[in-house]
């Protein structure tokens, strides 16, 4: 088995360890238990971002939820707006000769806002300056604590955080560049023709009926994540050391028994599963425990450099959650440059208002 790990430091104190692939001799025996997830998740379809701005975690499976029907991934209503774009779609499922395809990364967050931003870093909405707010705008401190697996007392005060996450990619889909003469669904074109430059209400009506953004790309799968909470002085020392040396050059035992242990961390969050899968969560709590004399504690970094654990997780982390999504404004649908400019102006103003007021 060959393990390829690439490590690099981002600006804004981002430390990323990318597990690009783990090749196995045999083929994976994994069978997706959710291969027929909601047909609403399809590139090229549009959503009205404003309908559930701040509450998108209710309709997109991005954090664990207590649901009576746990298998959904995406249930935000979407609308077909483009004709004949299937040939532009590039879809890909995880290859069978790869045991694990995904990434394993950690991000250093100087405050709670940066932690939320880090969690939703792979979710973007064109023209939205703080895309994570589309999911977290409605979250009270108790919800933040529950979703991130930490005690609510650590959602305020002068604390710093490290987010560690292991993601297993299953399905990917991306819509290529739209042609300038892209054909629109008849009703969409009719409503667009009715938009009047300078008439705010006509744009609002169009968005209400046919949306503000279309799905450009997405990745589904599942992930494990854990948040570590530190006092600022301890956090700065750890960040400085790992930035200087690189996490891949630090002995795993040192990571587990020092920097990411109860002796350094003010609080160690629970290991959470994005989909809320209890089987995976129970496995993580049992198998990812670090034992030191009479002490034991769960630590996601126990996976670091362990091909066996990654191989087991390949079968456990199925196609159950939304890991990445990129949504573009539907302005390319406008052929008239003046109407397009007016639509963009109204959309940008609305997004600014939503970000400020929610």
From TrEMBL:
The signal peptide stretch is 1-29
Q: Which controlled-vocabulary keywords does the entry list? A: Signal
Superkingdom of the source species: Eukaryota
Q: Which organism is it from?
A: Agrilus planipennis (Emerald ash borer)
The taxonomy runs: Eukaryota, Metazoa, Ecdysozoa, Arthropoda, Hexapoda
Statement: the UniProt record of this protein carries the keyword Signal: yes
Protein's recorded name: Torso-like protein isoform X2
